[in-house]
Amino acid sequence: MQWLERHVPKIVLAPSFIAALLFVYGFIGWTAWVSFTRSRLLPNYDLVGTIQYERLFASPRWEVALNNLFIFGVLFIGISMVLGLFLAIFLDQKIRTEGVLRTIYLYPMALSLIVTGTAWKWMLNPGLGLEAMVRGWGFEDFRFDWITNSDMAIYTVVIAGVWQASGFVMALFLAGLRSVDGEIIKAAQVDGIPTHRIYTAIIIPSMAPIFLSAFIVLAHLAIKSFDLVIALTGGGPGYATDLPATYMYAMAFSRGDIGQAAASATVMMIIVFAIVVPYLYSELRAKHD
Amino acid sequence: MSGILDIKGLYKNYGATEILKDINVGIDKGEFLVLVGPSGCGKSTLLNCIAGLEPISGGAIRIAGQDMTHVSPKDRNIAMVFQSYALYPTMSVAKNITFGMQVRGIDKATQASKLADVARQLQIEPLLKRRPGQLSGGQRQRVAMGRALVRDPALFLFDEPLSNLDAKLRVEMRTEIKRLHQDLGASMVYVTHDQIEAMTLATKIVVMKGGIIQQIGTPHEIYTRPANTFVADFMGSPAMNLIPARATPNGQGSMIEIARDGAEPLRLIEARHAGLEGDILLGLRPEDMHEAATRPGTPLQGGGVRVDVVEPAGADTYVVARLGGKEVTSRLGADTKARTGEVLEFGFDLSKASYFTPETGERLA
Amino acid sequence: MSGILDIKGLYKNYGATEILKDINVGIDKGEFLVLVGPSGCGKSTLLNCIAGLEPISGGAIRIAGQDMTHVSPKDRNIAMVFQSYALYPTMSVAKNITFGMQVRGIDKATQASKLADVARQLQIEPLLKRRPGQLSGGQRQRVAMGRALVRDPALFLFDEPLSNLDAKLRVEMRTEIKRLHQDLGASMVYVTHDQIEAMTLATKIVVMKGGIIQQIGTPHEIYTRPANTFVADFMGSPAMNLIPARATPNGQGSMIEIARDGAEPLRLIEARHAGLEGDILLGLRPEDMHEAATRPGTPLQGGGVRVDVVEPAGADTYVVARLGGKEVTSRLGADTKARTGEVLEFGFDLSKASYFTPETGERLA
Amino acid sequence: EPQAEVLHWWTSGGEARAVSVLQEEFSSRGGTWTDMPVAGGGGDAAMTALRARVLSGNAPTAVQLKGPAIQEWYEEGVLADISAVAEAEGWADILPTSIAGHMQCDGTWCAAPVNVHRVDWVWANKAILDEHGITMPTTWDEFNAAAETLQAAGVTPLAHGGQSWQDATIFETVVLGLGGPEFFRAALIDLDMDALQSDTMKAVFDQMRTMRGFVDSNFSGRDWNLATAMVMNGEAAFQIMGDWAKGEFLAAGKVPGEDFLCASTPGEGYLYNVDSFAMFTVSGEDNIAGQNLLAELIVGENFQEVFNLNKGSIPVRNDVALDAFDSCAVLSSEDMVATSDAGSLLPSYAHGMALRGAQAGAITDVVTAHFNSDMSSDDAVQMLADAVTNSM
Amino acid sequence: MTDATYPAQKQSRALQIALRWGLYLMLSVFAVWYLMPLFVMLTTSLKSLEEIRTGSLIALPREITFDAWRTAWSGACTGVKCEGLQPYFWNSVMLAVPAVMISTILGALNGYVVAQWQFRGANLIFALILFGCFIPFQVVLLPMARTLGLLDIAGTIPGLIFVHVIYGVGFTTLFFRNYYVTIPAELTKAAKIDGAGFFRIFWSIFLPLSLPIIVVTVIWQFTQIWNDFLFGVSFSQAGTQPITVALNNIVNSTTGVKEYNVDMAAAIIAALPTLLVYVVAGKYFIRGLTAGSVKG
Ligand SMILES: Nc1ncnc2c1ncn2[C@@H]1O[C@H](COP(=O)(O)OP(=O)(O)OP(=O)(O)O)[C@@H](O)[C@H]1O
Ligand SMILES: Nc1ncnc2c1ncn2[C@@H]1O[C@H](COP(=O)(O)OP(=O)(O)OP(=O)(O)O)[C@@H](O)[C@H]1O
Ligand SMILES: [Mg+2]
Ligand SMILES: [Mg+2]
To answer: Where would I find the ABC transmembrane type-1 domain in this sequence (chain E) (predicted)?
Structure first.
């Protein structure tokens, strides 16, 4: 009984931990293994060395995908965080219509991208959407044709991505804001701290854990953004907006080249590891002193 | 109209409950107002209203001559110590204290020197790098004090700032606050439940009960001439004895008759007041009931009463006896001869007595 | 070995800092142990260790005869009031108080009656439906008390449970706690910074400093025979005067010589102790320095000293003068004749004096 | 009693109605049809689901599969043998040989063909052509000339959607048109390195660059049907797209030959996209019976006719009467017979008939990258060779 | 003498009002931005196919028709059946509700352990679980298919629930842990003294404090699961396909005729339950749940 009681926390955590070991780390290991094989339509397990990685890094399309991941990742995470935070702070100002606005900011999450992508595609299309509309108002020189421009198209993906995810980040921050002790805010007010400083210096630092949540969610979305690209640009023009996730999917499922997909997945995991682990380390470390 | 703070007809409700009712009080520059009253009487709420942290339901608040009723807290130029400390959890102690200065753009050197000063005063120098979570209760309270003390506002608001400190530190802090008040001529509103703090610090005391001000006066006035039995009972520890008695006019003064257990009533002469008649409450502080033997020279009127309880407490001994059908406490010296069950000859100092009507508790004389 | 609580060689570190060092203390059933010490000395930490809320770094804790060092808090059969209240924010006051009983499966009727009892004692009946966020500081503290008082544990742990209450309520609560202690024979460990609380409640006082126990003893021992200058200084308010003096053997006793400003040294005879010699500190409580005129009969040794400050405080007046190069405070009656700048004839009651070495502060006699 | 769970990606409108014909027929023969439609990405999503199903040991009975993918799955050892049905029905006789080849794995029959889509179509708005005095081009030079005329007149010559498969569709028609059937076979079926790096291939990329100039500036990411709508609405003159585009015209009430014109893309040859069903190894008599029945019905005359009328494609069987079909379909059918005899009936690479996924994808990557940038034809050819090598 | 920034109240009052207006303006601008695609979708869904083909895509409908909505709900073909989204709706509900509940509860418990019952290695375990959030789903598809086959829940709703719980728990744990670390440890201490055990403390003290984060978690999980396509399409079979697969079947046919109005209506219909969750759950974004709990 005593023993059981002392170990309840561990027992509670155990299933998730074991599941993670099996279904995350086990599968990562599996993927790593497959990346050293010649698997095509279905996985096979005969090792052939690093040939898949050689192919991967010889592929110009993968290079584009990686570059895009960095552009997209940085902008998407950065903008969504900032926007989400600001919206949360704004909504926290005893706004009368909070419920409505919150739902409006959140709803993009609810819509399946396979269709919203179409709507965005139209809006971003210079001939149909915003450009045409603004020109229609008489601004003949207005140009907004990023989606047709190989160099700029990735930024339209950022726009749609931010549109979809920032609302959720807002909700996350809003929950965080609501957990901050009101007395402390009062103390700061009396201390003569202007509202913006109260947020930057007192509330936001105490929400550091919530930032971690937001970051992980956004990073996850950035890395796994698949629907977004497929629906909005289909990876185009050309493969200018390809991301590792779309690359991997294409390799694994439309091209029957599972070994190649596994190699790209492994590289992706390594990148994620390199970015997330230091952050996690510092974040979880700080809680201890 | 008062100089620094002027509260007119202030009301405050939480929902349907009235917490503060028709509060009118003001202080001049350099005054030290102490708010006292039973737990839950609205002291913190009043401070919050002054600070602008709670919207008020009626009335007006002027600070330094300007109407502040609708001004946001940060523009009221006040410093406040919260009963619940409200430290910034993510900042170090030093940062907690200097943050306000930093925001105000005070230069680094001044910040550092003020911080050093305050840390010394509050004896928290070794703690400056810690987070609030790593402090003891008293240490947190001192940091909260520090945050206010580095400021130089029009008005300080202190909500029980010393309640978690040990006696020694408390005395020292009290002295610091007093010094602050005197040297800088700072104006203060101070909530405390410590009588000594109230008495030694205040230039003006406000006694509240249930959101209503009972009496405003100097510590001496409040202590010696309480406006009603509530104030009499509340201020002073142990409380003023309120002894049921009968008064009859008697020449220039009145004769006060007090029932005694198992003996005939005690008869005392009140020489100062002539008008007393009928049932009254005689208010007498424990220290105004002496052991007749120890003070033979003084103009005390004596009487023997059987002692029920003798409670030694360091320098004093509290002796409880029954008078007028009630327990009456007297504060005697540590070397008192009083013994439980024996009759002790008391000396009553009626020159310090107060008189109240039993019905409303209002002061008669 | 003690009955209810027995702490042996307890150590507690936070990281590299030692907070508690070699704590050895125990209490028997029905004892009332009061922990005192300066802010940050480790009182709350010790309570937390006893409760099992903080892992200890060394030593052992036995409760009611059983080794509890590694037992979880809920199985230690203790009740605790936290300095920081730690109320459950989403529960009503009533629920806060009954939660523990409910968890322990006590039947509804008992719960209700206990709740009613406690609410009456603590005067929080009208608040039972409120949330903690809607309470004043003192009310919260009482709810925190209530949570402990409904329990019937082997040991109560109280961490400054009355610090936010006004004097009157405080006295009443003190009485309740005392009653609880006496009627139920409950065992208690109680942290307070209130001297009177410590003195009136304790059967045993532990004085701590910097995580080390300085003295364990009855209130009377602690007050009259402090083990070192720290305890002497710490207990009693105002503190014991520690007057630098020179002692020379003198027949059956010692002669104590104290420097005076602008007059020749004061010479007093300590009749009880013969062995005193050289530089010493004479410890004398303010109440043991009398105004010679008021106590002509007692065996006081007199001497005139010029008065520096006269500070009236209700029943008492504190008079500060310089002796042995230090400020010395005496507690005189409200009707003292002392006037600033004038010389007052003091009477010193050496029968109550303590003596310490100036170097280590240890008690000599 | 026969049972079949059928995984396919014919989900909407005409397609679904078409396949429901099969379902009805299947039911009327006492079978139980369990529908498992998964649309998206030209069958990518369905393939994903299929893989998961196969790996979890729960393969569907029949799966819409086509081209070399059939052989690939066969190599994984998961396809069933339906030779018994094929032989009983005499498929070898009624199917064009090149198409029959796709249905056979190591000499046994493992899939049943459903229809033939022709990919190399040019669709045109008749009114526009008439207005500018243009006839359907028969060579790419004619096409270019016509396009230039139109462009000068302010009409977008080519309606196109900038999605990689659409780019690839144009590309293969150009390869066929400029290089001829032999070249097409060498380059896009046999992946002959010389062919891929030949001057002809450079010319193909040059033509692609030219075509890029005929497209309006908003083409990127446009759905094929919106491009079709441009032709329909007179915003553009031509579209190169498989015969499913006809469905859009017909759905809008347009009449072939009157409102719009259809013609094969310049050059000889015929690029086909044959849909088919492969049968997966399943257990249970009911399922096997279902497989056989399904195979029989799919190639059966009735289904071939009704289905293809709905779908806009033409029957795989050469013995179905085409009376009910429109003029474009008739043209398609005639061409099929002719090219089949001439040996220029070729599988479409853009629609996964010619190559395995990895190679087809590698080529498409280069084609779409070239089309959407200002890459030179020399570079494109080099890249093409590299990509194909890398995909092996 | 007094602090540097001394106020000019009259002006500050006017400023306050101006700021307030600015705030509302800003919020509205963002609202418009967020609503734009919805506007396009709504208007399109109310147009006839004819109008879409011939008119501008981004314009108000000339004539409003609800046909597309009707078709999307009960008439659109998603294969041989033309019953719209309706039949798939319940699959999704039966899948999403338990999956959200299980993963939320697990996440809450895990977060509670990691934040308030630290044991050695707890943070490491947390980090390991967390890292699972990043595994690309495409990667897990094939091995998971095999696993489901072995567990004999391939193609079933429980199988789908299982998958969603496994890959959702990383997030739910993350959310709860990061919310719970901000709750003062004194509460746990007090409850331990009161005799409450692990689960009791969780149930009575922490859950009631968790409303906002439960909302966030439910929103996230419900959205993720409801909108999931990849798992839905891979691990279902005929009869257990969720609504996204149906939506995809309506929208994503390659060579069929595109009915944008039906597509858009279908997308909005498919999103309705999620929207409902947002509206209902949103009420529990309550401020100051910890008010009055501890001082300091
Ligand atoms: N988490 C922590 N990390 C490091 N030091 C700590 C931590 N918690 C407390 N301390 C330190 O331990 C010492 C003892 O703290 P404790 O709370 O026991 O003091 P206390 O005697 O109760 O004081 P007070 O009367 O002010 O409440 C203090 O100096 C405090 O700063
Ligand atoms: N949010 C609230 N809702 C309802 N009543 C409240 C609220 N906050 C405080 N109160 C009530 O208002 C009264 C005054 O509270 P206040 O905090 O001002 O008391 P106080 O005088 O500071 O008491 P203490 O000495 O105990 O701190 C109390 O009775 C309290 O219960
Ligand atoms: Mg208060
Ligand atoms: Mg403490």
So the answer is: 89-281
Which among E230, E233, E249 has the least Cβ separation from residue D11? E249
Contacts of residue C6, Cβ cutoff 8 Å, sequence gap at least 6:
C26, C61, C62, C63
C89 and C220 in a single domain? The answer is yes
In a domain, C21, yes or no: yes
Provide the CATH number for the domain around residue B226. 3.40.50.300
pLDDT digits (tens, 9 = 90+) for A2-38: 777 788 889 999 999 999 899 989 999 988 998 898 8
- The encoded tokens of residue D331 equal 């043209």
Helices B167-184 and B108-122 pack at an angle, to 10 degrees, of: 140
Query: Minimum-distance ligand to the CA of C40?
Result: 1
* B135: contact with C, CB 8 A cutoff: yes
Distance from CA of B141 to the nearest CA of C (A): 10
Q: Ligand 1 within 6 A of C23 CB? A: no
pLDDT in tens, D150-197: 888 888 899 998 888 889 999 999 999 888 888 988 888 888 888 888
ipTM at complex level: 0.87
CA distance E156 to chain C (A): 41
Please answer whether residues C343 and C306 qualify as being in contact, where contact means their C-beta atoms are separated by less than 8 angstroms.
yes
- SS3 at position D80: coil
- Looking only at the bridges linking them, the beta strands covering B326-333 and B316-323 are antiparallel
Q: How many CB atoms lie within 10 A of CB B133?
A: 12
Q: Nearest CA of chain A to the CA of D212: how many Å?
A: 12
Chain C residues whose beta carbon lies within 8 Å of the beta carbon of residue B142: 39
CA of C9 to the centre of ligand 1 (A): 19
* B–D contact: 3+ Cβ pairs < 8 A: no
Query: How much is the pLDDT for E1?
Result: 36
- What dihedral do alpha carbons D360, D365, D371, D375 form, nearest 10°? -120
For residue B205, the SS3 value is: strand
**Could you tell me which of D28, D26, D44, D10 has the C-alpha nearest to residue D295?**
D26
Instruction: Sort out which chain E residues have CB atoms less than 8 A from C100's CB and list them.
Output: 193-196
CA distance D182 to D205: 18
Task: Quote the crossing angle between the two packed helices B108-122 and B93-103, to the nearest 10°.
Answer: 140
Say if residues C96 and C149 touch (Cβ distance below 8 Å).
no
Q: Final residue of a domain: which of B170, B200, B234? A: B234
Q: How many angstroms separate the CA atoms of A138 and A160, rounded? A: 26
Query: Would you call C82 and E190 a contact, using CB atoms and an 8 Å cutoff?
Result: yes
- If one residue of B124, B139, B168, B173 were mutated to test the ligand 1 pocket, choosing by the most ligand atoms within 8 A of its CB, it would be B139
Does B213 share its domain with B283?
no
Ligand 2 shell residues, CB under 6 Å: B 14, 17, 19, 37, 39-45, 83; C 134-139, 164
Residue C147 confidence (pLDDT): 92
Single out the residue of E78, E67, E75 nearest to residue E45, CA to CA. Answer: E67
Our measurement of the distance from residue E73's CA atom to the centroid of its chain's CA atoms, rounded to an integer in Å, reads 22
Distance CA E114, CA B186 (A): 48
Partner C contacted by A6 (CB < 8 A):
yes
The one-letter code for the residue type at C209 is K
Domains of chain E from N-terminus onward: 13-63 (no CATH), 85-244 (1.10.3720.10)
* Residue nearest to ligand 1 atom 6, measured at CA: B134
**Taking an 8 Å Cβ-Cβ cutoff, which residues of chain C contact chain A?**
15, 71-72
Claim: this prediction has a pTM higher than 0.80: yes
Instruction: Locate the ligand 2 atom nearest the alpha carbon of residue C140 and give its number.
Output: 26
* Token pair recorded at residue D295: 């195979």
Choose the closest CB to B100 out of A184, A186, A193.
A193
Residue of D nearest to E140 (CA): D52
The answer on pLDDT for B226 being more than 90 is yes
In the complex, which subunits touch B with 3 or more CB pairs below 8 angstroms? A, C, E
Q: Is the pLDDT of residue E7 over 60?
A: no
